[in-house]
Model the fold of this input.
Amino acid sequence: MSATRPAHPIVSLHRLAGDYRAPVLAGLEAAGFFRDVPAGGRVFLKPNLTFPVYRPGVMTSFACLKTVVEILRERGFQVIIGEADSGGYNRFSMDEVFAKMGITELARTTGAQVVNISFAESEMVPVRAGWRTLSVPLPKLLLRDVDAFISLPVPKIHMNTQVSLSLKNQWGCIQEPAERLKLHPYFAETIFEVCSRLPRPYAVVDGRFGLNGTGPMQGKAVELNWLIVANDLVASDRVCTRLLQVDEARVPHLQYFRRRGWWTDYAAIQVSQPLEPFLQEKFFLRRAWTDYPGLLCFNSALLAWLGYRSPLAGFAHWLLYKFRKPFYDYDAEAEKVKK
Done:
């Protein structure tokens, strides 16, 4: 099964002057969502929830997610909000995040379903990476039981992948955080395979805030006040990089998608309006020296094993935290994870 890729990618760009409703509704209309997704179909929403509590520029806002859910439910779609436990080496519970952000209650009041996909039934997906064939666990629900998929990222800088946008957001569909760490050296190949298997993928990019400097969990939150709805994830990311003033040629996984043929000449992407009025400060990546061990592990299978799965991993992290403040209380959050 592979994603349905439109012959003519549409990227609908809107100013966020007030609430999300008008831009989201107009964007879904323009992107052909209501025309192309079967009436009453099941729609999987994948927000970006990469911290135990909400942070602007780091996570999809509740207001954006709520608006998308309400619009789809009003149109008779069955809605599933899904995300997996996050945190990588320092896992935290997505069920706790759902509750704290009001997503659990949103599902109850709207008739949507909320699923921690870490605990959903898995299907092993083969990923070819050089001479290796990897097996990646993805939720069977996502691959077999939905009619459309909406990625709801925020536009941010990422210390390992340069940017985190509509494509990178699907890294959280890999069910086990520890498995994601093991797959880091094969990020481009894996995220291509994951996104290629999505049923009718769309993007709704929550650009109320972006994250500049040191992402994906720290950095400077920048108020951008724009929203993108697109019927093509790659086209969405290419427009986003231009809005952030990041050179797409410096984003390795985007270039991998280009080499694999998921690409359209930029002039053929139907962007709803000129980008210039939306440009603000230039986004850039700034790493601290304590970010480089993670970067090295991201790009090397051997170092990833040493840093995350070897007998030395615990000591290595203990040593790192002598110099880098933990992002959150790792022990407290680990206690909340389902056993």
Q: What stands out?
A: DSSP finds 14 helices and twelve strands in the chain. The chain has one domain: 10-288. The longest strand covers residues 201-212.
